[in-house]
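Hey L., structure's done. Input below.
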Amino acid sequence: MVQDLVIALVAAASAGTLYMAAAAKIVKQYERGVVLRLGRLRDEVRGPGFTMVVPGVDRLRKVNMQIVTMPVPAQDGITRDNVTVRVDAVIYFKVVDAASAVIQVEDYRFAVSQMAQTSLRSIIGKSDLDDLLSNREKLNQGLELMIDSPAVGWGVQIDRVEIKDVSLPETMKRSMARQAEADRERRARVINADAELQASKKLAEAAGEMSAQPAALQLRLLQTVVAVAAEKNSTLVLPFPVELLRFLERAQQSAPQQPAPEQSAPRQVSPPQQERQQSQPQQSQQSQPRPSAVPARPTRSEPLARH
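Output:
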């Protein structure tokens, strides 16, 4: 009798242990538990920690509440300006209502993925190529709104949508490269022309200042010689500007003339003129024939004197 009682107690304890093992559930911190009892949703969503369910009656489904990063496969499309592109994106979302994510949609991850691909193709067809390349922030907001509208009923919240890459055909890349090169060349020419205009104005002002002071042009020429000579060249070719001669001529003409001397004053003779006057009498004396000291020889026609 006692033996049967012990066996019954051991069997009951074993059954209780098996029941507890089947009924005990652990819900992690980032998860929520949705309980379906006999196929019907329980109003209470189980939080993180230890929880109990009725084995064979209740079914616990755990839903991840973390933010999910899902890449959207690249989609081929034609933009509004008839350019074929290939665009891929990434979407960030999370579950905010665990019961709706289990009851309202079969697989919320697959549903969000398909909605993202459809919305991405729609955005490509409504946008121009320039918007896809330079105005992505506005497109991201539009894409997020298109995906978030149906996802609200699934208990899913879209946090962020980003267009990652836009692939263009090679012909379009070459065309855009030529366009960018032409635009840069145009801006370079405009900048060079502006620089030439400013330089010409400054040179005109410098020429005006140098024309007032002719010595400034000579100083500038000497500075050029010094700059060229600093390169340690063996040969120096120095151009002599004609304008320098004109400046010197103008300076000589503009120099103040000395007053003319009076008639009563003796005439001042410059040293070169004195040397010239002294050389003139010497030349006149040299031009006269010198007397010969040797007596002239008698000619053959004259008779010889007899002694």
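The first strand starts at residue 24 and ends at 27. The chain is about 50% helix and 20% strand.

-- N.
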